[in-house]
Design a protein that fits this description.
The complex is a heterodimer of chains A (about 110) and B (about 120). Chain A is built from no helices and eleven strands. Chain A has strands spanning about 5, 10-15, 20-25, 30-40, 45-50, 55-60, 60-65, 70-75, 85-90, 100, 105-110. In chain A, a hairpin with a 4-residue loop joins strand 7 (about 60-65) and strand 8 (about 70-75). Chain B has about 120 residues and is mostly beta strands. Helix content of chain B is about 0%, strand content about 50%. In chain B, a hairpin with a 6-residue loop joins strand 4 and strand 5. Classes of the chains: A mainly beta (about 110), B mainly beta (about 120). The interface of A and B includes residues 101 and 102 of A.
Chain lengths: ~110, ~120
């Protein structure tokens, strides 16, 4: 079992719709959870992080964390074509602060 | 967010030569830096973790003698790919942690290495 798993996609949604990206992790001791966006050929950029169970909202983005289910998700409201990218879920445990990445979900927002 | 500068952004080298990649934190002190490698259509794979002033910790399967990491100051870490071969061609990305909101890590722009 991979430490951090994501559906590789591609996930295709129409412009204006809600895109839902999911991630599961295996280490129950994981402390913090991150969502990054990566455009092709570019470095990842941080969208949001979340530590506590529940929802965290930032503009059009909402991160949801359920530690009991070892599940973290990212919702993108009013999706735009510029949101088309690969979204990487990353989990930080107790081992030296390193981030473990999922394989990423490719999102395509169609005009 | 904090700024991490990585240089060069692209490099082409001949097989057998060495290449040095620099990663600088511009506006904070990076106590820890991470080096990742990313092959096309794949996720980031952690290569090593370096803490300022100490030896890097390498992930399983990463050759420490081939990928030399130096973290001599709180703002600079370097990765040297020694005796590079075509299979080392990849996208190398550093990230730095230690500034405000120390739980976050900020990424450099990445270095596209092509070994011919």
């Amino acid at each position: 079992q991979k430490e951090v798993e994501q559906n590789s996609g591609p996930l295709s949604v129409p412009e204006g719709a809600i895109a839902s990206l999911n991630c599961t992790y295996s280490d129950r001791g994981s402390q913090s959870f991150f969502w990054y966006r990566q455009y092709s050929g570019k470095s990842p950029e941080l969208i949001m992080f979340i530590y506590s169970n529940g929802d965290k909202e930032d503009g059009r983005f909402t991160a949801q964390l359920n530690k009991a289910s070892q599940y973290v998700s990212l919702l993108i409201r009013d999706s735009q074509p510029s949101d088309s990218a690969t979204y990487l879920c990353a989990v930080k445990g107790n081992q030296g602060g390193k981030l473990i990445f999922g394989q990423g979900t490719e999102l395509s927002v169609k005009p | 967010g904090a700024v991490v500068s990585q240089h060069p952004s692209r490099v082409i080298c001949k097989s057998g030569t060495s290449v040095k990649i620099e990663c600088r934190s511009l506006d904070f002190q990076a106590t820890t830096m991470f080096w990742y490698r990313q092959f096309p259509k794949q996720s980031l794979m952690l290569m090593a973790t370096s803490n300022e002033g100490s030896k890097a910790t390498y992930e399983q399967g990463v050759e420490k003698d081939k990928f030399l990491i130096n973290h001599a100051s709180l703002t600079l870490s370097t990765l040297t790919v020694t005796s590079a071969h075509p299979e080392d061609s990849s996208f190398y990305i550093c990230s730095a942690s230690g500034g405000k909101g120390a739980t976050e890590a900020f990424f450099g722009q990445g270095t596209r290495l092509t070994v011919v």
